[in-house]
UniProtKB/TrEMBL annotation:
It holds the Pfam family Methyltransf_29. This is Methyltransferase. GO terms for biological process: methylation. CDD domains: AdoMet_MTases. It comes from Oryza meridionalis. Keywords: Glycoprotein, Membrane, Methyltransferase, Signal-anchor, Transferase, Transmembrane, Transmembrane helix. GO terms for molecular function: methyltransferase activity. GO terms for cellular component: endosome; Golgi membrane; trans-Golgi network. SUPFAM superfamilies: S-adenosyl-L-methionine-dependent methyltransferases (SSF53335). Belongs to the methyltransferase superfamily. It is a single-pass type II membrane protein. It is found in: Golgi apparatus membrane. The chain crosses the membrane at residues 24-50.
């Protein structure tokens, strides 16, 4: 059980008590009162709760003795049912952070210091139900799961979403594609003269970045084309848009083009998309457009649907002239311009960059700048040149999808990984995934999983082995191994960089399956808490969701003692796996299912 502060005793004590005892008792009481006042004063600044929110003070986890199990954890107040700890603007105010609102710093990550982390379980909202399964979820979700309907009324003329009884429906509209994202996508393919009017261009367009994505209907209608989009938006005035996207089962994440690089390596996307995304691309010498340039592949496209591209009023014409000039200086060329949309294309080589006049802005990035460094790295207003290899081969030299999923990517050599080791890794993870599904076979259905996260993704082998299942995988690469993320993108998969000593940038209850391979051992080496990570996993895992934890036996034994406390004891399996080339010694596989509970349980 969790230790609790000692309670004061009532009653008077024995008869005839000496004056000395009474004096001592009075002094002791005064000391306790003084200590309580000090705690109240300093606790307002350093306690793990926010004074204005009146959440009961929770103690941090203490080490669980070897012979004891932790039976319960407190439940957070209902107002925290949508808490995102590192994107909590209430916390920003409490900590008196001086953030530049014009640069969108208030939408960037600012994590609570250790003493202020909550040590309680995030409750589901009242009436929460197990989410509607994919593919039905693309078009409808339970209103009780995300009880926010303001977008339905605000965007009613744009067909973002419609409230329909106990459900919210998604007709597929958007600010610039009222008639449907599917028709808009066909139009883009026709603008680029792609074969058969398909935007995937024979598998050469696979990874897309959609900035200011709304409820991610653009990304939803790319999926039938075997195109996977990272739909990106901040929790701004439309703060539940990404929550809706994830509830629908569409790949998406919280993020903003602000002051830090996006957590993706260079040359990750074949196409970037902005449909009325309301981003000032001209600010700070074009630094935000240069960030898009950094993550676009050679020959990649930037699709821009916005009034600046077509409106004839003086203000929009002036913006268009300046943006066209910036794009030209970045060596972008217009591939097509029709109606409300312009599509620029990025050069395949460094040739245009080398022909620019001396002193042209934006300047080229310094030779010692690492374009793949993307975890808490400030953006830079410079053009990222290609490596000698990319310049020579005139592009990324990637195979079309799906061949690129299992073919060794050219950038493997930058990590010193051989093609044989890459292929062996694929085979090992294919075998491991087969074993995992055999262990869960009696408990899961074909549609049990949609949103999957690999919390320590390595080269993406786990996700690649799930290709024939109707899921998408957020491949998370620890910040200490961030170089591996470019291999994941070169395979046609999605992912991000993260430090698991901090909270992840997503809403509660957004993933059906979490996979953690040796992750707990790694964070312990960093001096971080196993228990904190479990609480974070519980926050982002859906009720009746699963976690596959593969780690050292001692770690697994410790986690098993905590399962009742986090309410992951609905079903579990604990086995010793087969040895393979990735075997770290003394490993076990623990698979658990989270209970569906409410605050009354």
């Amino acid at each position: 059980m969790m230790t609790k502060p000692p309670q004061s005793r009532g009653g008077g004590g024995g008869g005839g008590g000496a004056l000395g005892r009474r004096g001592f008792a009075a002094l002791l009481a005064a000391a306790v009162i003084a200590l309580a006042l000090l705690c109240l004063f300093y606790g307002a600044a350093f306690a793990p709760t926010l004074r204005s929110r009146r959440l009961p003070l929770q103690r941090r986890f203490e080490a669980v003795p070897a012979d004891l199990a932790l039976s319960s954890l407190p439940v957070c107040d209902a107002r925290y049912s949508e808490l995102i700890p590192c994107l909590d603007r209430g916390l920003h105010n409490q900590l008196r952070l001086r953030l530049n609102l014009s640069l969108m710093e208030h939408y960037e990550r600012h994590c609570p210091p250790a003493p202020r982390r909550l040590n309680c379980l995030i409750p589901p909202p009242a009436g929460y139900r197990v989410p509607i399964r994919w593919p039905r979820s693309r078009d409808e979700v339970w209103k009780a799961n995300i009880p926010h309907t303001h977008l339905a009324s605000e965007k009613s003329d744009q067909r973002w979403m419609v409230v329909n009884g106990d459900k919210i429906n998604f007709p597929g509209g958007g600010t610039h594609f009222h008639t449907g994202a599917d028709k808009y996508i066909v139009h883009l393919a026709q603008m680029l003269n792609f074969p058969n009017g398909k935007l995937n261009n024979g598998g050469n367009i696979r990874n897309v970045l959609d900035v200011g994505c709304g409820v991610a209907s653009f990304g939803a209608y790319l999926l039938p084309l075997d195109i996977i989009a990272m739909s990106l938006a901040p929790n701004d005035v439309h703060e539940n848009q990404i929550q809706f996207a994830l509830e629908r089962g569409i790949p998406s994440t919280l993020g903003v083009l602000g002051t830090r690089r996006l957590p993706y390596p260079s040359r990750s996307f074949e196409l970037a998309h902005c449909s009325r995304c309301r981003i000032d691309w001209l600010q700070r010498d074009g630094i935000l457009l240069l960030e898009v340039d950094r993550v676009l592949r050679p020959g990649g496209y930037f699709v821009y649907s916005s009034p600046e591209a077509y409106a004839m009023d003086p203000i929009n014409r002036n913006i268009w002239r300046k943006m066209s000039d910036l794009a030209q200086r970045m060596c972008w060329q217009i591939a097509s311009k029709e109606d409300q949309t312009v599509i620029w294309v990025k050069p395949l080589t460094n040739e245009c960059y080398m022909k620019r006049e001396p002193g042209t802005l934006p300047h080229m990035c310094d030779r010692d700048d690492d374009p793949d460094a993307a975890w808490n790295v400030p953006m830079k207003a410079c053009v990222t040149p290609y490596s000698e290899r990319v310049h020579k081969v005139k592009g990324s030299n990637l195979l079309p999808w799906p061949q690129r999923l299992t073919a060794p990517p050219p950038r493997l050599e930058e990590l010193g990984i051989s093609s044989n080791n890459f292929s062996d890794d694929n085979e090992i993870w294919h075998s491991r995934v087969i074993q995992y599904w055999k262990l869960m076979k009696s408990e899961i259905q074909k549609d049990s999983f949609r949103n999957v996260m690999d919390m320590n993704a390595n080269l993406g082998g786990f996700a690649a082995s799930l290709r024939k299942k109707d899921v998408w995988v957020m491949n998370v690469v620890p910040s200490t191994e961030s170089g591996k993320l470019k291999i994941i993108y070169d395979r046609g998969l999605l992912g991000t960089i993260h430090n698991w000593c901090e909270s992840f940038s997503t809403y509660p209850r957004t993933y059906d399956l979490l996979h953690a391979w040796l992750l707990f051992s790694e964070i312990e080496k960093q001096g971080c808490s196993v228990e904190d990570l479990l609480i974070e996993m519980d926050r982002i895992m859906r009720p009746q969701g699963y976690a596959i934890i593969r780690d050292k036996a001692a770690v697994i034994n410790h986690i098993k003692k905590l399962l009742p406390a986090v309410r992951w004891d609905d079903w579990s399996s604990d086995v010793k796996p087969k040895k393979d080339a990735l075997w770290s010694g003394d490993e076990r596989v623990l698979i658990v299912r989270k209970k569906l509970w409410n605050q009354t349980l």
